[in-house]
Amino acid sequence: MGDSEGALLLYQPKKATKVDYEYIWTMFGRDISPDMLMQMARQLRAALSTADLVGNRDDVWLAEPSARGITLDDPDFADRFRRSLKLREVERSIDDHAVWRLFGLHQWSIDSMPDGKPVCSSWVAYDLALQHFWERLIVRAKSVTLIHCSPTLPDRLRQVLGIEVEHIRIPDMAAHRDRWPDDDGTESIYPDSYDRVQRTINVPQHGRLVLIGAGIPGKAYAATIKRQGGIALDLGGLLDAWDGRATRPLVFATKTPSQEPSRGHEPYMLQKPSWLPLWMRGLSRRF
Q1: CA distance 61 to 10
Q2: Handedness of CA 12, 16, 21, 23 (dihedral sign)
Q3: Does residue 27 contact residue 174 with C-beta atoms inside 8 Å?
Q4: How many domains are contained in the chain?
Q5: Is the distance from CB of 17 to CB of 97 less than 8 angstroms?
Q6: Which of 75, 227, 246, 271 has the highest CB neighbour count under 10 A?
Q7: Pair 147, 212 in one domain
Q8: Are residues 236 and 131 in the same domain?
Q9: What is the pLDDT of residues 170-227, one digit of tens each?
Q10: pLDDT digits 0-9 by tens, 139-156
Q11: For residues 157 and 165, what is the distance between their CA atoms, to the nearest angstrom?
Q12: Which residues pair with 209 in a beta bridge?
């Protein structure tokens, strides 16, 4: 869960502002309608209610207790809520709209999080990636499905890890669709691409491992895969790092501060896993 989910969870057509829509358009394009956004919000809430584990931002679920008394109608809402968050150093000057989006996550966590729902940091996937945990898991699966926008990532997975990959290609977010020359932009991100993916995955999965990097719709894909007996991992921007792109620079600035921002993804890039114990790996590097 990130601030984009927070924006959708707070979305109300009668209260939405120009700034709200400009943010939403970066993800879905200008053709997205209020009815579509409300439908997507319902799908997101339903998916979160069935997830086995929800990743939420540390600064949101570790917010000061005083955050519970803050409302959107408070005249000093943005300043008060910003102060209540345990923001990473690189984010302490976030703008008021970003604060509003994070409030959406906080409000959902308080009002709608099912009792007993396991929660972890949204950044756990990155921490595990630095240990190259995911490569070992994927190699053991031998064959995976990938839901992602990149035409090059499937071959990276095949070449580095030696696995079979079924690729369900999706459009990149609207602001970056021109990144891929073979995407002519004719398929809408929602509902066209969303419906196509749902038709593809809404079949028995038989324990298949599915890696997802699909933004907000990815949560609904994960719910469908789980319902059909698969194992869905929403790894988000980590998949971009595997593809050689630093799309989460603020995460990298915190997790790998010694790296230049444009190279922050490099410690996360795919590696062929070693099955040697850690102490033997250290010896192998010495001799």
Answers
A1: 17
A2: negative
A3: yes
A4: 2
A5: no
A6: 246
A7: yes
A8: yes
A9: 999 999 999 999 999 999 999 999 999 999 999 999 999 999 999 999 999 999 999 9
A10: 999 999 999 999 999 999
A11: 7
A12: 144, 231
Beta bridge partners of 234: 212
Q: What share of the chain is helix, strand, coil (3-state, %, to 5)?
A: 55, 10, 35
Rounded to whole angstroms, how far apart are CA atoms 65 and 177? 40
- The reported pTM is 0.92
Residue 256 lies in a domain: yes
Calculate the dihedral angle through the C-alpha atoms of 98, 216, 9, 69, rounding to the nearest 10 degrees.
-50
For the cut 80, the answer to whether the pLDDT of residue 274 exceeds it is: no
Task: State the amino acid at position 133 in one-letter form.
Answer: F
CA distances from 66 to 71, 114, 169 (A): 11, 21, 43
Q: Rounded to the nearest 10 degrees, what angle do helices 153-161 and 133-141 cross at?
A: 80
Those residues whose C-beta lies under 8 Å from the C-beta of residue 67, and which sit 6 or more positions away, are 81, 84, 85, 106
Which token pair is 145?
A: 């499905």
Residue 86, SS3 per DSSP: coil
- For residues 128 and 259, membership in a common domain is answered with yes
Place of tokens 């698969």: 230
99 and 128 housed in the same domain: no
Q: Give the pair of three-digit tokens for residue 143.
A: 């064959």
Maximum C-alpha span of the chain: 67
**Is 275 domain-assigned?**
no
The predicted structure's pLDDT at residue 284? 44
110 and 61 Cβ atoms separated by less than 8 Å: no
Using DSSP's 3-state secondary structure scheme, residue 218 falls into helix
